[in-house]
Amino acid sequence: MDDITQYRALGWDFDMTLHGHERSQQFWDYIHENRHCQTHHIVTFRTGRLLDRIWHDLGRAGCRLLPFQFRGVHGVPDEVYEAFVLGLSGSDRYLYWKGEVCRQLGIECLIDDATMEVWAGCSKYEIDYVHPDLASF
User: Fold this and answer.
1) Among the four residues 28, 87, 96, 111, which has the most C-beta atoms within 10 Å?
2) Segment 64-76 mean pLDDT
3) Cα-atom radius of gyration of the chain, to the nearest Å?
4) pLDDT score of 1
């Protein structure tokens, strides 16, 4: 188990972490209570219209969190996502994007289910990584 209470700033993946994971409700409660006075960010591979639907999707899932409880919502730039999907030159930037964004924002730990897509970036930018199945608090 990885104790996430030790960090001042946490990055939360959206799909299959904050939304759609069996522990999503526990994560919502943890963020809502914020007993450790942490800052929270959503760091997601969502783009475009899917990025715009985050609060709608959380509301439909019964989540009581509101935007002010997060320091920000950060979606992968369209060009980074498209290069990765299409296998274009520079497509490996996608694999480093979440780690880079976390470093820029002062996020110390990323909670994310997509190990293969985030491990390289977290490692390169020295961001601790926790899979949602293993997060403890």
Assistant:
1) 111
2) 97
3) 14
4) 61
